[in-house]
Amino acid sequence: LKQVIPLIDTLHAGLTDVVADTSNHPAVWHAVQRGISALNKYYSLTDDSYIARFALFLHPTFKTDYMRHQEWPDSWIEQALSLIRQVWKADYAPRAQVPASTSTTTEPRSGGLYDFNRYCKEKRVTATSDAIDQLEAYLAQDSFHVDDPLAYW
């Protein structure tokens, strides 16, 4: 899947170059125009599934760098980022944990020494909304070459 969108972009660029070449026979020009129309028809179907977008975003080599290099509209990139963030938060982001119950009664200090058990109970750490969002941290990193993205993940 990671190769589908770059391959379609390469085919589209090649066909566009042929159309721009005015030395070609009109029959070639018309055939290439029909080829571009067919390619665009199927390429647009990738917008119906977020899988193709996510494959680019989650491949460390591509991320948004590929889209910007191909001069995709910023509005499309932002819409795709918004979609991946929604799916991430709904289905994959770690949930805040319910804190362990702690007793509100205070135990007296024995012999004037500090009660370390009470201190530990009061300092239990729970997940909060301030926790680092793994998706945002990943997207903020520069892209880098990876031969096998599944092995990376």
Automatic annotation (TrEMBL):
It comes from the Eukaryota. This is hAT-like transposase RNase-H fold domain-containing protein.
